[in-house]
Specification:
alpha/beta; Serine Threonine Protein Phosphatase 5, Tetratricopeptide repeat; Rossmann fold; 3 domains; six-stranded parallel sheet; 14 strands; about 50% helix
């Protein structure tokens, strides 16, 4: 194996990367615990900009030998390149504790500590009660910035957060965004990002925002950005418009292979925009086909008219035994487990988290064709009429749990959302301050160390 290892390193040094990679992979076939081969494959992955693969190889090498210096140096170097200097120094501290006489590691730690810069200050502003979409995003921001989350209606608290910050994130283009852009005079000295969801575009607040003071405006769907330019015709000239779809934390939802059945679920507040008048009429037609069909509703009433109508029509249609109201559910994942379909009849949505969450669990969505729905959801899961949705349910062969999961995974994963937000933030900082993007990776070529391959270069370059 030693000869094979040297052969691979020689090939790498000669620029024959593919041949070197094959050589190291052959070693792993016979010796999966070969830490040197794993380290060297990590170097090759890094050179090919396959950063996740590189980290995975170094991680495997270090699990075999936590003190294998080449892999330690390479792993720390990648952390530094990803602007995770704090994590890099924390990792080195742990290694040095067990290896206190290693001067090279101590020197590396010293260089990393010198390279650390004060974190940029980011204030996240949101009216209380509207912060439900911010949890994962704020957690992500805290890995890169010094973050102050201000979920308040108190003007002094809001002004204090804006004054403290270098970047201001406005969640929702509502009255808070109006106040910040119109009443805080030093806002023009800040980098400002506003994320727009849905309802704001239909409210008077939207055109009262001073959009020329907002550096970047993020919409959660393209059709919402198009609609916004009809409300504020020159919006795209005042602010940089970007689209970042919402992200679903797939770890919170347990996927399983589902099948056609008789349980339809509705999730969300019950009001006229959700178009609840469709629900009993869809169910009534299904019950005539099979009395086992049942509609399960998780959500609270927000309009008394909806409550009066649903109670009245359910009774008139004689489907009282086929409708169950559960109220608000804190654990929607558990509640959805025995459901076969997720029914969404809204006349307008910017996204529809309930749809994505059900799909992540392998549940088939049935989505009414609201404006923009065809941008967001699989076309064969969208219906235009009650007869059409009945036909979709009756198509027992057209049920594919894995397809629903993969659709969400590929388009709406939390990771994808956070990466795109990170790139927008980095790009904005680069344009304004000329700072090195924390998402930009080094273009330096890996070099061959005396014994094993290393990507380490001076951290003070």
């Amino acid at each position: 194996m030693e000869d094979k290892l040297k052969q691979g390193e020689t090939l790498f040094a000669e620029g024959k990367i593919e041949e070197a990679e094959k050589c190291f992979l052959e070693i792993l076939q016979h010796d999966p615990q070969n830490k040197e081969a794993l380290n060297n494959l990590g170097v090759i992955a890094f050179q090919g900009q396959q950063i996740e693969n590189a980290i995975d190889y170094f991680d495997k090498s270090l699990k075999i030998d936590p003190f294998y210096k080449e892999a330690v140096l390479n792993y720390v170097y990648i952390l530094k390149e990803l602007n995770l200097i704090t994590e890099a120094s924390s990792y080195l501290y742990k290694i040095i504790e067990s290896n206190p006489n290693d001067k090279e590691l101590k020197q590396l730690l010293n260089e990393i500590e010198k390279a650390q810069k004060p974190k940029i200050k980011l204030a996240v502003l949101c009216l209380p009660g509207l912060e439900s979409f911010l949890g994962d995003i704020v957690d992500f921001f805290q890995t890169k910035y010094e973050v102050r989350a201000c979920y308040s209606k108190n003007n002094k608290e809001i002004e204090s957060a804006v004054h403290w910050a270098e970047i201001v994130w406005l969640e929702w283009a509502n009255e808070l965004a109006v106040y910040v852009t119109n009443n805080i005079r030093y806002i023009e000295k800040k980098l400002v990002i506003c994320r727009v969801h849905r309802y704001e575009v239909f409210s008077p607040s939207f055109y009262k925002v001073r959009w020329e003071l907002v550096n970047t405006t993020i919409f959660v769907a393209k059709f919402m950005s198009v609609l916004s330019t009809k409300v504020v015709p020159d919006l795209d000239k005042k602010t940089n418009i970007r689209v970042v779809y919402n992200g679903v934390n797939l770890k919170k939802f347990e996927f399983r292979e589902n099948a056609p059945g008789f349980n339809l679920a509705v999730v969300g507040y019950i009001h006229l925009r959700k178009n609840p008048t469709f629900w009993p009429h869809i169910l009534s037609k299904l019950v005539k086909i099979d009395k086992r069909y049942t509609l399960h509703i998780a959500g609270e009433y927000q309009q008394v008219e909806c409550k009066l109508y649903l109670e009245h029509i359910i009774n008139k249609l004689g489907i009282e035994d086929n409708v169950r109201f559960y109220g608000h559910q804190d654990n929607i994942q558990s509640w959805l487990k025995d459901k076969n379909y997720l029914l969404s009849t809204s006349i307008h949505e910017s996204f529809g988290y309930g749809i994505a969450e059900a799909m992540a669990m392998g549940i088939k969505p049935l989505v009414h064709i609201f404006p923009g729905s065809e941008e967001l959801w699989p076309h064969h899961c969208i219906f235009s009429s009650i007869d059409e949705v009945i036909e979709m349910i009756n198509e027992k062969d057209d049920y594919n749990s894995l397809e629903y999961y993969e659709f969400v995974e590929q388009r709406y994963s939390l990771r994808s959302q956070l990466e795109k937000i990170g790139l927008i933030m980095d790009g904005m900082l680069n344009r304004i301050y000329g700072e090195l993007s924390s998402s930009t990776l080094s273009n330096e070529t890996p070099v061959l160390a005396k014994t094993n391959m290393s990507i380490l270069t001076s951290l003070t370059d």
